[in-house]
Amino acid sequence: MxxxxxxxxxxxxxxxxxxxxxxxxxxxxxxxRLVRHTASAGVAYRPGVDAYGRKVIPxxxxxxxxxxxxEVFEFNIDVDIRKYxxxxxxxxxxxxxxxxxxxxxxxxxxxxxxxxxxAEAxxxxxQTISTTATADAATAAAAATTARAAADASxxxxxxxxTADTAEAVSATAxxxxxxxASDxxxxxxxxxxARAAADxxxxxxxxxxKASFAExxxxxASxxxxxxxxxxxxxxxxxxxxxxxxxxxxxxxxxxxxxxDSATANTALIAANRKAQKFTGLNMTVGKVxxxxxxxxxxxxxxxxTDPDQDALAVACRSILKGGK
Length: 326
What we know:
Blueprint: H1 2-18, H2 28-34, E1 72-80, H3 87-153, H4 158-204, H5 208-233, H6 240-277, E2 284-293, E3 299-301, E4 304-305, H7 309-324
Antiparallel strand pairs: 1-2, 2-3, 3-4
Helix pairs in contact: 2-7, 3-4, 3-5, 3-6, 4-5, 5-6
């Protein structure tokens, strides 16, 4: 259609240059190619008239005041420059990083809880040893008291005196063992409590960075607990349960530390991705203004006409030809 219009425009220009009285003949076939479809009167909406031209009550019969439209409509055409600077890709990368960070944070919190549980198991084992040692110390003390009473009743019986001395030495050793066991149990319990508090905080935290931080704290506390338990157990076969708990707590603490580190790394990546995605935020550029005059039908973009006056004039002529059946 555009090429046809251009050809006709050239014909008009050439005719004018040769002689003003020269006329260009446009056939109905040409017009059918150039003129856009015009809906019949029965199709186009006309207020107050039905499809057959009969008068009807208008839809706004309630007496509503007519809407006064401005003569000219104007609006800007804006372009989001960010789309052309990798914005959508950066958004996708940030979203992916967020999912990864959230997953790593959840894993870290879970690992922290596992480490805390292992530390609490060590506490239980240490408390059992302490309770037993305390009971043994009490028994030894009672035996020493009894032995000394017997020796005192027979001051010249060297055997009873030696027995009392031995009982008192055993009692003293038992008391020292009980005190050490109680001290170990207290320290181990404190470490486990710290691990549990940090693990609970990691679970309750909503930010990935906080989960990672609390998980790291829990891992450290669990590791400390494991070291204390291992030292308390030593190579004493009677403390095998404590030694086993210490090993489990150490393994869980290492796993929690690794998860916390992974979570922290993922969160760092998330921060970087978010910063990159926000780098070009708000870069909207107005590339032009569209202006439409209702009365004249003029449509322009940045002052340049969006309609072809020659084409409009030609269309009017063709409509007249087609309407007249020429």
